[in-house]
UniProtKB/TrEMBL annotation:
Topology in the lipid bilayer: Multi-pass membrane protein
Top-rank taxon: Bacteria
Protein's UniProt keywords contain Iron-sulfur: no
Protein name, per record: MFS transporter
Domain Major facilitator superfamily (MFS) profile: 8-447
Alphabetical list of Pfam families matching this protein: MFS_1
Record-linked SUPFAM superfamilies: MFS general substrate transporter
Keyword terms, alphabetized: Cell membrane, Membrane, Transmembrane, Transmembrane helix, Transport
Location in the cell: Cell membrane
Region (Disordered): 455-474
Higher taxonomy: Bacteria, Bacillati, Actinomycetota, Actinomycetes, Micrococcales
Transmembrane segments: 47-65, 77-101, 107-126, 133-154, 160-181, 193-213, 225-242, 262-286, 292-314, 326-345, 351-379, 391-412, 424-443
Length: 474
């Protein structure tokens, strides 16, 4: 790995880490936020889904911006805006202000993730790309799993507001490293931005999510619910119609004709819906039903973090050599078993007996799954579409997550109790299992990987990606 590649990988990990951390660290702080600002379960859902909504709605156009104006420039703007909105969340005086700040924070996060993955895919190739994506997956995955522990410590020792304020530290470090990386100027004209597509996507996602959250409070027959639902569904249909006809669509539908791309995204929907809903309900359950402190509830994520640290890069490398299909099948099955095991956590909850084994299985399943999944999706398309490809995959993941969170009330009922928790764990286990089945039935191993045992001189790589070296390197 060249010095430039090391810096690129570090920046990609740190930038995505910030975005993923803020999506998970908030879960353990929700009871404290609700206690200070009020609002009940709807506020808790909106604090999570407001972020996911703008992230999911805008990540597609952010991928286009990344490919058009440069990954470094887009990432720098995203980091600065994310820091500003993090401070706005930390200082929010009311629930409404907090939700608005979270929505705007999600806009910044949308700029970070596709740029990060696009930097990796355009600067690494072959097995090295698999290892890099594995490292990115493992270390950024830690943000999603270890976030509750960090959040719990901050909530119990300081305040829930520090959950947001702490973001300025990794943002500052990332900006310093980013300043040492330059990006070559474009040699072709930049395509126009699909503004209409972005607006239709935002309304198409926002309307149904708003309806799903608010229906638990006012019912489906209320105009406040069914009108946004209808408008949102109509807008999403119009979005698909427009993307099929636009000269420069922000979501090229032709990508979905690539088998591993569309199958990988279908598996992503089930896996990340489970990964969003499961931990969200678990940390609330441990605090509100199990009587755990925020820090103790956050400790439940540590075993999964250890598994991700230990094995994510290994499985990313193995998938690069042997193909992603087997790993994308076994991993979700193992994670599904972990969620099912958590249904045994009935008060009085024994942390070591009822929680830790299930979380270990979950972490192992994710370590097996996530890097091969990412590599399968992005490896199916050309490197010049890396930005929009990673944006689509991340949009699918975030949209699946926000819809799952929005349906929390319909799954667990008006209040979280033992039966509601067990229903939620069963639902996420089924979603995770479905992701594994889809992968087994649909994913195909690229021929370049099936021929991995043949000497490299006899089997040239397919569509090789040139690695850009720093000035002066041989």
């Amino acid at each position: 790995m060249t010095p430039l590649q090391r810096r690129i990988l570090t920046v990609a990990i740190l930038a995505s880490f910030v975005a993923f951390l803020d999506g998970s660290i908030i879960n353990v702080a929700l009871p404290a936020i609700e206690e200070e600002l009020g609002g009940g379960l709807p506020l808790q859902q909106w604090v999570v889904d407001g972020y996911l909504l703008s992230l999911g709605a805008l990540i597609l156009i952010a991928g286009s911006l990344s490919d058009t104006f440069g990954r470094i420039r887009v990432m720098r703007i995203g980091l600065i805006w994310f820091g500003i909105m993090s401070l706005a969340c930390a200082l929010a005086p009311t629930g409404i202000v907090l939700v608005i700040a979270r929505i705007l924070q999600g806009v910044a996060a949308a700029l970070l993730v596709p740029s990060s993955l696009a930097l990796i895919t355009s600067n690494f190739s072959g097995v090295a790309r698999g290892k890099a994506i594995g490292a990115w997956t493992g270390l950024t995955g830690i943000a999603g799993i270890a976030g509750p522990l960090l959040g719990g410590v901050l909530v119990d020792t300081l305040s829930w507001r520090y959950v947001f304020a702490i973001n300025v530290i990794p943002i500052a470090v990332t900006l310093i490293i980013l300043a040492k990386i330059t990006e070559p100027a474009r040699t072709t004209p930049a395509p126009p931005i699909d503004v209409l597509g972005a607006c239709l996507a935002a309304v198409g996602l926002g309307g149904p999510v708003y309806a799903l959250i608010e229906q638990g409070r006012v019912g489906w027959d209320n105009p406040q619910v069914y009108l946004p639902l209808v408008i949102g569904l109509a807008s999403f249909a119009a979005f698909l119609w427009w993307e099929a006809r636009a000269a420069h669509p922000m979501m090229p539908l032709g990508l979905f004709r690539v088998r591993n791309f569309w199958v990988g995204n279908l598996a992503t929907a089930g896996i990340y819906a489970a990964l969003s809903l499961g931990p969200f309900v678990l940390v609330l359950y441990l605090q509100e039903v199990g009587g755990y402190s925020a820090t103790a509830a956050g400790l439940a994520s540590v075993p999964a973090t250890i598994m991700m640290l230990a094995f994510a890069t290994l499985f990313g490398s193995l998938a690069a050599k042997h193909g992603p299909r087997l790993f994308m099948t076994i991993g979700p099955f193992v994670a599904s078993a972990g969620f099912l095991f958590l249904t045994t956590a009935v008060p009085p909850i024994d942390f070591w007996l009822h929680v830790v084994p299930g979380v270990i299985l979950l972490g192992l399943g994710l370590a097996i799954t996530v890097a091969p999944l990412t590599a399968a999706v992005l490896g199916a398309i050309s490197s010049d579409q890396a930005g929009i490809g990673s944006a689509i995959n991340n949009a699918v993941a975030r949209v699946a997550g926000l819809i799952a969170i929005a349906m929390t009330g319909a799954i667990i009922g008006e209040t979280l109790d033992i039966a509601g928790f067990q229903r939620a764990m069963a639902v996420v286990a089924v979603l995770m299992f479905a992701g594994g089945v889809v992968s087994w039935l649909g994913i195909r191993t690229p021929r370049a990987q099936t021929d991995a045992a043949v000497p490299e001189t006899l089997t040239p790589p397919v569509n090789p990606v040139r690695v850009r070296k720093p000035d002066g390197a041989s």
